[in-house]
Specification:
The protein has 99 residues and is mainly α. Helices cover 77% and strands 0% of the residues.
């Protein structure tokens, strides 16, 4: 039980970091779509590729369940809700097993 609370805290923080990466990936995609930033810039390209490599493996199965509706990809929103759910579960477990 001694290791459970710190482990769950680290997992909660990793999920928060993943949500941040997902949000940046979404905003970066919008900025590229509206030609606000140049997607051929090497820095933008490398950031986009990194974020795509960590988000697409999780978003792809969700896209099979929730296809784009009128061109709107709702899978990131669903992923945000899934992450919020798991973070809530982790917090409830942490409340029951204080460190």
């Amino acid at each position: 039980m001694v290791i459970l609370a710190p482990l769950l805290n680290v997992l909660h923080d990793l999920l928060s970091l993943y949500k941040l990466g997902l949000a940046i990936y979404i905003i970066l995609g919008w900025l590229e779509a509206f030609d606000v930033i140049n997607k051929y810039n090497s820095v933008v390209y490398s950031i986009h590729n990194f974020l795509q490599s960590i988000t697409e493996p999780v978003l792809a199965p969700i896209r099979r369940i929730i296809p784009p509706i009128s061109g709107w990809d709702l899978s990131p929103i669903a992923l945000f809700f899934i992450i919020y759910f798991f973070q809530g579960v982790l917090l409830e477990i942490l409340k029951r097993f204080p460190s």
